[in-house]
Amino acid sequence: MMTIRRRLLLLLLPALAILMLVGGLVDYWIALATTQNAYDQALASTAFAAAAYVNFDQGKAAFTPSPRTAALLRAGSGVAGDSLLYAVTGPDGELIAGSPGLPAGFAMPPAGATGAPESRAVFRDVRVQGVSLRAVSVRVPAPLGAATVTVAETRERRTRTQRVMLFGKLLVDFAELDITLLLIWIAVYFGLRPLAALRDEAETHSLRELRRFDESTVPGELRPVVVAFNRVLELLHDAAAAQQRFVADAAHQMRTPVAGLLAQLELLLREPRAVAIASELATLQKGIAHLAHSANQLLSLARAEPIAALPEDRQPIELKALVEQLVERHLERADKAGIDLGAETAPAQTLGDAWLLEDLLANLIDNALKYTPRGGHVTVRCGLEGGRPYLEVEDDGPGIAEAERTRVRERFYRLPGSAGIGCGLGLAIVDEIARVHGGALSIASGRQGRGARLRVSFGAPTQVRRL
């Protein structure tokens, strides 16, 4: 359940972070627009108030502000800090009052420009003595031309106000994000507690019994799920029981008669009277051996099916002992085929079913001996690599082409031109048993690019797959 909670939080965190980033950008834009508009309106009001004191006498403009207006427009000696600058120019561009440097950095549109009334305010961003200013100009119309009142201020106050608004909103957003994540975590934690209880109950069940869950102890929201799951468990139980019965019956009905036939044929071949038909009997013996091999392969595949391979009897298996046992069992066959069969073992242990792992390694060795020519070598290995136990069989036969390494895992598929009596189930059985044990089959070329190297890597003993 902790994994689910973390996964939900990790999924939500990027979305919330992006949302907060977008919100911060929107807040920044709103702060800029709001302060820009408010300060521009205040600056325009100052310009219009000053324009009211521009008078014309015989065509000449004069600026005679009231004491209050004069105090408001008093600029001081520089443009640092929160300075306010102004300039009043006549129709001919002559400076009447204010800062002499301001008009040089500002160009007013000509009188009568398209669309706007003469008294409208025109805003510009200008630089005076290297300082960025926001300026507004207002025209004062007259019969012989128009005077211009320009008022400018530095951006210190605007910047401070924008920063206060932006950082304040970001702090609120961060607080909202933290509270949101906390509420989500609390909701997920308490919302998943019934699932955690259901998981704990499932872990107490016997993996072979597939016992039903108690529907009365789960919340109403989960009851339909538990009811449906109980139905699935019943079907799995019936299927597993039927398959186990099939395996047991088939093992008895097929193995015993076939083994008896092979034994009788061997005795018959020793009889002097069978000399005349020895070749026919040998062919029959080969066919029955093929039948016995196919029956054993099919039974091994049935045992390896996940529904049948319920891990109730899983126990620690010493891979070194398993390798030594299987190599010794196949030595006679290897000697008859002229193949050097050997083992390179290191202590390793995995959790599994002894019969299934024996089938797995037997099929790997059988596959290698089948395709290795006389005079070749087959090496069986076991050990640990990266903390994971493995079984490996390497030969110097024809190998498996890279394009065929996926298909050879399929049931009843044989490589083109394959000899022998195989039915194409060996590697399918190995792959199925490996997956049941939480492992994986890998196929590669042997040393110096010759032959094939088939390795089954298992998970840690505590990571064996459960149904």
Q: What do you see in this structure?
A:
There is one protein chain. With 467 residues, this protein is an alpha+beta fold. The protein folds into three domains: 2-108 and 117-161, Beta-Lactamase (2-Layer Sandwich), CATH 3.30.450; 205-308; 312-463, Heat Shock Protein 90 (2-Layer Sandwich). 49% of the residues lie in helices and 19% in strands. It contains ten helices and 14 strands. Strand 13 (440-445) and strand 14 form a beta hairpin. It is elongated, with a radius of gyration of 46 Å.
Summarize the structure.
The protein has 467 residues and is α+β, with helices and mostly antiparallel strands.
The whole-number mean of residue pLDDT values reads 78
Report the total helices.
Answer: 10
The order of strands across the largest sheet is: 4-3-7-6-5
Q: Span from first to last CA?
A: 18 Å
CATH class of the largest domain: Alpha Beta
Largest sheet: 5 strands, antiparallel
CA-atom Rg in angstroms = 46 Å
Regions with little confidence, pLDDT below 50 for 5+ residues = 104-108, 110-118, 462-467
What keywords describe this structure?
467 residues, alpha+beta, Beta-Lactamase, Heat Shock Protein 90, 5-stranded antiparallel sheet, elongated, disordered C terminus
Topology:
Elements: H1 2-51, E1 54-57, E2 60-63, H2 67-73, E3 84-89, E4 95-98, H3 101-104, E5 121-128, E6 131-142, E7 145-154, H4 156-191, H5 193-204, H6 223-269, H7 278-304, E8 315-318, H8 319-336, E9 340-345, E10 349-352, H9 354-371, E11 377-385, E12 388-395, H10 426-436, E13 440-445, E14 452-457
Parallel strand pairs: 9-11
Antiparallel strand pairs: 1-2, 3-4, 3-7, 5-6, 6-7, 8-10, 11-12, 12-14, 13-14
